[in-house]
Write a structure and sequence with these properties.
The chain has 477 residues and is α+β, with helices and mostly antiparallel strands. It is 29% helix and 23% strand. Strands 1, 2, 9, 10, 11, 12, 19 and 20 form an 8-stranded mixed beta sheet that branches. Strand 10 and strand 11 form a beta hairpin. It is globular, with a radius of gyration of 22 Å.
Length: 477
């Protein structure tokens, strides 16, 4: 049976998965459902702390993927898998539906082709609508819409909880989660590969590279030169919860020859997002926002939904997507090196992650890895609810009666309680710092951005065994 144990530096894992984002966590979870020893090797101090933490958090139907591609197939399969997994684990999901809005003649003429593309992708629920119905569905839109296309099954999801659930599930199945292990060197031997990391060596018979923005760098450590990652920055505005009635559906742009454009989307936390921008960079750590980005989004917001711009902005943020010069996911095994690349996974990786994991497992089997399914798997974890569509702990009178800490609100903007912060600090993959607490509880994510609650939240983090810095990643295993 795969059981979590303190790591022996000389131990040789059956598989090491590089990258603790949503795709890497899904792969580790799937592999640890077999009679294998698995390590999840993550450069940062927490899972889901890279590309996976900052995206538009949409659970995609795959209606607009390029038909016949691997991405199209895996997004469709991933939508079904993640929808079911969310129900099993409590990942917040809201089935809001979406509408693509045409504002120009070119965009209006593109809508029938998009409906046809959706049908070629196996999605037959899209419907062409006129301008009156567009405004009936989203009354707050600016005047001037010419028509639209509905996508009733597009949904919003919590990307933070998704990654954490998959990584926690992998951990409980026996995967060793090695945090702070940035891979700096690779030596492929006759029987196993040695990964040199910033926290020592990791030995594995097979290696899966799901390193996201660093996937091309790791690929070159294996001697390949098949692609280059271009960091693509997307900046977004997050509007206050009072704006939520303005956008109860996802408002998607119509892709044209000039690009995909900017969307307006509700979030599972009760906010509204406007974005993203799209800017290719060279700096893989450039997650800062910019004046140019703000100006661009303000102009788009004024054109799409002027009333939204009268609401308060709670936060701004930027995420980096791993763009490559390849029209599809790049998932390729190299059997003679016992190595498999998972590269070029765009923002659809959130939806496709579990299907990518299935695909990777099958490719490894074909490449020679022995895979025997386990019969002793633990049930999937039940994740804390940080969404607004179902009751939160501060609203659960029975829970508060049993444990008053769930009635002690610490972060008043987001209604986060002392019990939730305590639980996050003692979870199987605990919060190790304030940013980890943000993603696990929503603490300090509201209007005040921690101005009023930051001291109390920090005090609770200290009280539960962390001093606000990076804990030893060998703990809690």
């Amino acid at each position: 049976m795969n059981t979590p144990t303190r790591r022996d530096p000389a131990h040789v894992y059956d598989v090491a998965v590089i990258g603790g984002g949503v795709v890497g966590a899904a792969i580790a979870r799937d592999l640890s459902g077999h009679d294998l020893s698995v390590a999840l090797v993550e450069a940062r101090d927490d899972v889901g702390d890279g590309t996976s933490k900052a995206n538009t958090a949409i659970l995609h139907t795959g209606f607009d993927a390029t038909p016949g591609t691997l991405e199209s197939r895996l997004v469709q399969r991933g939508y079904a898998l993640l929808s079911a997994y969310a129900r099993d684990t409590g990942i917040p999901v809201e089935h809001t539906g979406a509408v693509l809005v045409a504002w120009t003649t070119e965009e209006l003429q593109a809508l029938p082709g998009l409906k046809d593309k959706a049908e070629r992708n196996g999605y037959h629920q899209c419907r062409l609508i006129d301008a009156d119905e567009v405004h009936r569905l989203v009354p707050a839109l600016a005047d001037g819409a010419l028509g639209g296309l509905t996508v009733p099954d597009e949904s919003i999801i919590c990307t933070w909880t998704t990654t954490l659930a998959l990584a926690t599930d992998a951990h409980q199945r026996g995967t060793q989660v090695l945090l702070g292990h940035a891979v700096t060197g690779v030596a492929v031997g006759p029987h196993h590969t040695t990964l040199t990391t910033t926290r020592g060596t990791v030995h594995a018979r097979w290696v899966v590279n799901a390193a996201g923005l660093g996937a091309d760098t790791v690929d070159r450590l294996f001697g390949h030169d098949r692609f280059t990652v271009t960091p693509r920055r997307g900046e977004l505005f997050v509007f206050d919860k009072l704006a939520r009635p303005l956008a109860n559906k996802i408002v998607l742009p119509v892709p044209t020859s000039r690009g995909k454009g900017v969307l307006i989307s509700p979030t599972v936390y009760g906010n509204v997002m406007l974005g993203p921008t799209s800017q290719d960079l060279t700096d893989r750590a450039a997650t800062d926002t910019s004046q140019d980005g703000f100006d661009f989004l303000l102009a788009k917001g004024e054109r799409l939904m002027p009333r939204l711009l009268t609401e308060e902005v709670t936060a701004t943020y930027a995420g980096l997507r791993a763009a490559i010069d390849h029209g599809d996911y790049l998932i390729e095994p190299t059997p003679d090196q016992r190595y498999l690349l998972v590269g070029g996974i765009r923002s659809t990786g959130l939806t496709a992650g579990m299907a990518i994991a299935e695909h990777v497992t099958q490719l490894l089997r074909t490449a020679g890895l022995t895979l025997n399914p386990r019969a002793d798997l633990p049930p999937p974890p039940r994740m804390p609810n940080i969404g607004e569509s179902t009751p939160r702990p501060y609203q659960d009178h029975q829970r508060i009666t049993e444990d008053p800490a769930y009635g002690q609100v610490v972060c008043f903007c987001e209604r986060v309680t002392a019990g939730e912060i305590r639980d996050a600090c003692h979870a199987p993959l605990p919060a190790r710092n304030l940013e980890g607490l943000r993603r696990r509880t929503r603490a300090m994510n509201g209007r005040c951005q921690g101005f009023f609650c930051g001291a109390a939240v920090t005090q609770l983090l200290h009280a539960h065994g962390n001093r606000g810095g990076t804990a030893d990643p060998e703990e809690n295993r």
